[in-house]
Design goal:
The protein has 25 helices and 21 strands. By secondary structure, it is an alpha/beta fold. The chain has a 7-stranded mixed sheet, with helices on both faces. It is globular, with a radius of gyration of 29 Å.
């Protein structure tokens, strides 16, 4: 083995992180670490990622359970310990690696007698141990290592004397331009871990309040600990303590409720917020700086950028993007950063695809062994999959590799991958009757069988649990090949495979938005369940749809679907009021093709509506008839788009007329009455066509 003193000294000289792995039996590893830890310098606190608090050296050390890793994000430490003897948490490992500063020391505690490791965890440990940053200590060399280990001298940083590099200086100028330049020119700051993003934002906020007559700056943060570094640099750079209160830290939910005025809104770790939250903030505030980590737990770079651009276009705002590439917390080329990026495929880039001359396409199912053995294939596949879900995490990669029930379908164009589909089989048919009844009653939930259990519970029918289903987890097409029918081809390949396997159906669950709904409806997937609550990551209600293959599935869906539409219509003014009226119309039209949604109007209803449209009866007397007319017409054809949206919003979703706008303006009571009379007249005319 290398001389420990020389190894650590060389890494520190280069401002790299040094790593020591201690591996053996669980108890031996613990005892060995405790012996080595006694030689660590006093006054240097450590962060332990694990559960065994007896590993802590002093009251200044912190023990953070892996599930609570967000508590330390944005912080810095010279000593970090990963206790991997009982648990390997990919998200916590990848995120916490950014806490360790250059010149610091990482201890990795490994139980090498554990023969039950998942494939992804073995891959990670092997990559880590083989890294040039890693020194490995085991029972064979411990005595030698102990004589060589010494309390390394950590470099103390001058927190009051931060020197910004050229990238950060340029970023400060861009942030100032957001405040002093044209309105509606948001800035999106992108950086990987350790690039000084929080430092730059904190100093920028301080300089703006020092030099400009600003009343306040708002910092959006749902996890206060995650902005500790930003706040620290802000407070260190303000000219007067009186300015401290002018940077207001507000959680996103409180901000959306109150929408206070501000000269600048800073959204740190923007990719951790649901898109509807970001959309609302972008819509309301004219001067915004967003910051997002490119890789890892916070978001997945390009996927987030693509979704943000859609929002900016909708709000007619010209955004600019700026990247911080130069690491400042450690030196470029840091071995630990390389091994983390490689292990969790954090820097997988999309391959360039020729947009001028598309080549012949072919489809393949990829097995897990191929993914493990071919790093290039794994990176191509995962680089595409993260586009489908901008909050991808390292644990998603582990699931992809370890879950044998997940299938990966790949569309090749020449040698390049232009489309990927991931799906998982759901099969509870062999479970006993009591378990199935517990699922229906909400007492039990088996992991990995999301859609069938949701359907059985919602419809209170055990027959759903007798189906065998392939659920689509993600489907994504290379940006250069979108609108080329590749997505439809991937679905057809899955359906064909499901038929060969004698499966009953294919299902999908996604955050409900119009574009996705239309895509799945065109692929013959039918609305089956819509959640009442918004998904935590997307901020949208989750729509579940089913493409029935077997006669059993078709019969079951047909007999159950009326309950779906009844709940949907009843829930419009309660749970689904925030859905756009146009999307509501689209869903009603889709189900209206196969169901009797909204009964045909009687002669008496039509007579009353004619009197209302002619100004002979009041609005309230005619309200039930206008609602029935709106529901019936919305399920039969798209009527005048503006009128359809207004009537659906007011009559079906219970929007308050005093706040609802038509063509961008509020209507008086008299104007509303005239509008509804004219709309009713138009709808009545549609009935006779």
């Amino acid at each position: 083995m290398h001389q420990i003193q020389e190894h650590i000294h060389q890494l520190q000289q280069q401002h790299f992180r040094a790593c020591i792995a201690i591996k053996g039996t669980a108890d031996w590893v613990k005892e060995s670490y405790q012996v080595l830890a006694k030689k660590l310098p006093d006054g240097q606190s450590a962060i332990l990622l694990g559960h065994d608090a007896s590993l802590l050296r002093s009251e200044h050390d912190r023990c953070i359970p892996p599930k609570h890793y967000r508590e330390i994000l944005g912080q810095q430490s010279q000593i970090l310990i990963w206790d991997l003897r009982k648990e390997i948490h990919p998200d916590a490992i990848a995120a916490s690696s950014g806490v360790l500063k250059g010149g610091g020391l990482l201890f990795v505690l490994i139980d090498d007698t554990d023969n039950q490791l998942q494939a992804s965890h073995s891959r990670f440990l092997n990559t880590l141990i083989e890294s040039e940053a890693m020194l490995v200590i085991d029972s064979d060399n411990f005595d030698e290592a102990l004589t060589q280990f010494y309390p390394f001298q950590v470099q103390s940083s001058n927190k009051q004397g931060i020197t910004l590099n050229e990238e950060q200086q340029a970023c400060l100028a861009k942030i100032e331009r957001v405040v002093k330049g044209h309105r509606n020119r948001p800035l999106i700051l992108r950086a990987d871990r350790g690039r000084g993003k929080s430092t730059t934002l904190g100093i920028a906020a301080a300089q703006l309040l020092n030099n400009a007559k600003l009343e306040n700056i708002i910092l959006v943060a749902d996890h206060p600990n995650s902005v500790a570094t930003l706040i620290q640099h802000f407070e260190q750079n303000i000219d007067h303590a009186s300015l401290r209160d002018k940077l207001r830290v507000i959680p996103s939910d409180v901000l959306l409720e109150t929408l206070p005025e501000t000269h600048l809104l800073i959204i740190d770790e923007a990719a951790s917020f649901p898109l509807p939250t970001l959309h609302s903030l972008i819509e309301h505030y004219a001067r915004i700086v967003m910051a997002s980590t490119l890789h890892g737990y916070e978001g997945s770079g390009r996927g987030f950028d693509l979704k943000l651009n859609t929002i900016f276009k909708a709000e007619h705002k010209q955004a600019s993007f700026y990247s911080l590439d130069q690491p400042i917390r450690w030196a470029s080329g840091d071995p630990l950063e390389r091994v983390i990026n490689e292990s969790f495929v954090l820097q997988a880039h999309l391959t360039e695809v020729d947009t001028t001359e598309p080549q012949a396409r072919h489809f393949e199912w990829i097995n897990k062994k191929e993914l493990l053995e071919d790093q290039s294939l794994l990176e191509q596949v995962f680089a595409l999959l993260v586009l489908a879900h901008y909050q991808s995490r390292p644990s998603d990669l582990s699931q992809l590799i370890d879950n044998e029930d997940i299938r990966i379908g790949v569309m090749f164009e020449g040698e390049h991958i232009v489309g990927v589909l991931a799906s998982v089989e759901e099969d509870l048919s062999a479970q006993d009757a009591q378990l199935k009844q517990d699922i229906i009653n909400g007492k039990r939930r088996l992991k990995g069988h999301l859609s069938l259990q949701a359907f059985a519970s919602f419809y209170s029918q055990a027959e759903w649990l007798d189906l065998k289903c392939q659920r689509i987890l993600r489907i994504v097409v290379h940006p250069a090949r979108q609108s080329s029918q590749i997505g439809s081809e991937l679905i057809q390949e899955l359906l064909a495979s499901a038929k060969v396997q004698n499966l009953d159906a294919c299902s999908v669950s996604y955050g409900l938005e119009a574009k996705l709904f239309n895509f799945w409806a065109r692929a013959d997937f039918e609305s089956t369940r819509l959640s009442y609550q918004a998904d935590a990551s997307s901020g949208l209600p989750s729509m579940m749809m089913l493409n029935p293959i077997s006669s059993k599935a078709k019969t079951l869906l047909s007999s159950s679907k009326q309950r779906f539409i009844d709940h949907f219509v009843i829930g419009l003014p309660i749970y689904f009021q925030k859905l756009s009226p146009a999307l509501v119309n689209t869903i009603l039209l889709d189900v209206g093709r196969s169901l009797n949604v909204g009964e045909a109007l009687s002669e008496q209803q039509i007579a009353r509506l004619n009197k209302f449209s002619a100004g002979q009866t009041s609005l309230w007397d005619s309200w039930p008839d206008i609602r029935a007319l709106t529901l019936y017409c919305a399920t039969k054809r798209v009527i005048n788009t503006e009128q359809a949206n207004v009537l659906i919003a007011v009559m079906l979703q219970n929007y308050a007329m005093e706040i609802f706008k038509v063509d961008g303006k509020k209507l008086s009571k008299k104007e509303w009455l005239a509008y509804l009379r004219e709309a009713s007249k138009t709808l009545l005319a549609e009935l006779t066509i």
